[in-house]
TrEMBL record:
Coiled coil: none annotated. It comes from Hamadaea flava. Keywords: Membrane, Transmembrane, Transmembrane helix. The chain crosses the membrane at residues 46-71, 83-106, 118-141, 148-172, 178-196, 203-221, 233-254. The keyword Membrane applies. This is YndJ family transporter. It comes from the Bacteria.
Length: 262
């Protein structure tokens, strides 16, 4: 599972995020795009090294770059002073990689941050890059492309809120995580339907229809102590399919369409 998770992290940091930066507008983001590799490459190298001082130093370089990325969200909010659904989606995309980088630094240092196991911290890194950055970005872009309807608003808001609720569930318990998974699934299924209807990325839409059922199965199994796929199989199915079939395909589709940044 470690190799698979590392490959997914590399895909997110070196491909999905740089591609996605061209689809968001925020003060200072052009500078982040220009120097992204300075922090991204060390971050990716860190996940392949044994835990210890060298891996932590490399992960800190990535943390520094994602902190600059998160600051662009603050500058955008200060400039526009609004939190419309599309803004919530864009700001979530800009901030969540920082939280993933914090988890990476802790995991590479062997520190069970907030009491989370090292295995959970390792999985939090790709989760916040894909369910955080990519999903929020695609939900926002798709919502705008579909026009203002209750379904597009649901997509733009439920994905960021669901992602944050899943993260909060780590602290509160499995029941709260299940609520977060339900909200996130509603948001992503709404996004998937709009992706299908608009014809932007139908492969991504089909992928979401299947992978979020797996997410619900896992969350419900954890909350109610029912049989469910083990975490290793979730990474190999839900995680891998979402990273390639949904995130990469959808972001590429929007880049090829040369849409206006969110």
């Amino acid at each position: 599972m470690t190799v698979l998770v590392n490959v997914v992290v590399a895909l997110g940091v070196l491909a999905v995020l740089p591609l996605g930066f061209g689809l968001i507008e925020a003060p200072g983001l052009a500078v982040v795009r220009r120097f992204w590799a300075v922090g991204a490459v060390p971050g990716v190298v860190a996940v392949w090294l044994p835990r210890g001082g060298i891996a932590v130093c490399l992960a800190v370089a990535y943390l520094a770059m994602t902190s600059v990325l998160a600051l662009t969200a603050g500058r955008r909010l200060a400039r526009d002073r609004r939190l419309a659904p599309l803004d919530v989606a864009a700001l979530t995309a800009l901030v969540t990689p920082f939280a993933g980088a914090v988890a990476l630094v802790a995991e590479r240092g062997g520190v069970e941050l907030f009491g989370f196991s090292l295995a959970i911290l390792a999985l939090t890194v790709p989760h916040l890059h894909f369910a955080g950055f990519a999903a929020a970005l695609v939900a926002g872009l798709t919502s705008r492309a579909a026009g203002v309807t209750w379904l597009s608003t649901t997509a733009a808001l439920a994905v960021p809120v669901g992602t944050l609720l899943v993260l909060a569930g780590y602290f509160v318990g499995d029941a709260a995580e299940l609520v977060g998974a339900l909200v996130l699934t509603v948001g992503l299924w709404a996004t998937g339907w709009l992706l299908w209807r608009t014809g932007v990325a139908r492969i991504a839409a089909v992928t979401l229809a299947a992978t979020m059922l797996l997410a619900l199965d896992w969350a419900a199994g954890e909350a109610a102590d029912l049989p469910h796929l083990p975490i290793q199989w979730m990474a190999a199915t839900h995680g891998l399919a979402n990273s390639i079939g949904f995130a990469l395909c959808a972001v590429l589709a929007y880049r090829l369409r040369k849409v206006r940044p969110l």
